[in-house]
Design a protein that fits this description.
heterodimer, A: 206 residues, mainly alpha, 0% strand, B: 202 residues, Rna Polymerase Sigma Factor, Chain: A, Arc Repressor Mutant, subunit A, 2 domains
């Protein structure tokens, strides 16, 4: 606002300066001018009176049933995207920055994977050359290591018990079910432990 | 979502709009509930006819709700609503100006009767009971002073001082440059100063 700038003492208040007087207390320059200039003082006072009176005007109430009359003319057409967004947790919808950040990261990962796939397709010969070199380098060691590991596991006393347990399809199914149940219970327990508040503090309209 | 009516009241405008766009009628009604008074007040002070203001408010909300799918959430919802309300009122005033300025009758009139009826507007007196009620409602010194402003100035001054909108919001609502809004408000205040001074002397 012009009111904050240095002003000549003899000039009358500008529109911006008069406006600034309506926003809050005048700064020193304006105060000095108002003290000295009766024209500006009466103008500022008239402005303030008018604005105070306008601000005090009561709102008018339309006749009852406006909403019904409006709704009679409107057809509700749901937007699929908004339905989807409303299914997201409230904190995700409210905290848009986190949502945007997460979406950006996911997007970057997808783009990176796509770029990697495209690059791999374009340089298949180079990749197979590198691959064959790596394989020839580690093949022997990898195979020997795997064999040693398998032999070591087979020599363990619990290996025979596990092999007997998983021998029939029924027992295998039961074991897998028990493991899955344990996994899901663990997930649910974790979710409870790190649960976020479900109802954020309502804030004013923006 | 299992949110009830009172829960909608706690939500921001943007959230209620989201629910409306997802197809919840209660959200439509909540938006009307929030804005019916300010929109009606703005339009009533613009056109100064209660019955007509009811129609124009209804038209405003129908426009708002029908085009809610095209509303862009990065803009303030209230500014968008006021923009539609203001345009509806200004459009009406322009049409009415055209009608009343035509001595031969309204250019929109389709029949000879309509032409005659609209031509009579120039000489018609304003004394019906409804108009008397309106005159009482709008009869305060300040209301009269606002009535005497040009429609554009009136919109600006009402949005600024009754609705408490910033200059930037008013510029957005009225599709005007910021400088023009400042000039309009400054001129409106000048006129109000003169009018109110004159009324005080009387």
């Amino acid at each position: 606002m012009g009111a904050r700038m240095k002003r000549p003492h003899d000039a009358h208040l500008t529109a911006d300066e008069l406006d600034a007087l309506l926003q809050g207390p005048p700064d020193e320059g304006l105060q000095a001018h108002l003290f000295a200039c009766s024209d500006c003082r009466s103008t500022a006072e008239a402005d303030r009176n008018a604005v105070t009176a306008i601000r005090s005007l009561a709102p008018f109430q339309p006749a009852a049933g406006l909403a019904d009359r409006v709704m009679a003319q409107v057809t509700i057409q749901p937007v699929a995207l908004d339905r989807f967004i409303l299914r997201l947790p409230l904190w995700v919808r409210r905290d848009r920055r986190s949502l945007i950040r997460a979406a950006s990261m996911a997007g970057a990962v997808v783009v990176g994977m796509a770029a990697s796939a495209v690059w791999s397709l374009m340089y298949r010969d180079l990749l197979s050359l590198w691959g064959s070199r790596v394989v020839s380098l580690f093949e022997g060691r990898l195979w020997n290591g795997t064999q040693a590991l398998a032999a070591s596991i087979a020599a363990q006393p619990w290996y025979g018990v596990i092999r007997d347990t998983l021998d029939s399809p029924g027992r295998l199914g039961m074991t897998v079910t028990i493991l899955l149940l344990g996994y899901v219970s663990g997930l649910m327990a974790l979710r409870r432990l790190v649960a976020l508040p479900s109802r954020p503090v309502p804030h004013a309209n923006w | 979502m299992a949110e009830t009516g009172p829960a909608l009241r706690d939500l921001t405008d943007q959230e209620v709009v989201r629910h409306a766009r997802a197809g919840r009628e209660t959200a439509y009604r909540e938006l009307i509930r929030r804005y019916e008074r300010p929109v009606f007040s703005l339009i009533y002070r613009m056109v100064r006819d209660r019955e007509l203001s009811e129609d124009l408010s209804q038209e405003t909300f129908v426009k708002v709700l029908k085009s809610i799918a095209s509303y862009r959430p990065e803009y303030k919802f209230s500014s968008w609503v006021f923009k539609i309300a203001n345009n509806t009122a200004i459009d009406h005033l322009r049409r009415r100006e055209l009608d009343t300025l035509s001595i031969e009758g309204s250019p929109h009139a389709m029949t000879p009767e309509a032409v005659e009826a609209t031509a009579l507007q120039l000489g018609s007196s304003r004394a019906s009971p409804l108009e008397a009620l309106e005159a009482k409602e709008l009869g305060g010194t300040i209301e009269e002073a606002i009535q005497n402003l040009r429609p554009e100035y009136r919109s600006c001054i009402l949005l600024r001082h009754v609705e408490g909108r910033s200059y930037e919001e008013i510029a957005e609502i009225m599709d005007l440059p910021l400088g023009t809004v400042k000039t309009y408000i400054h001129r409106a205040r000048n006129e109000l100063r003169v009018t109110l001074g004159h009324l005080r002397k009387d």
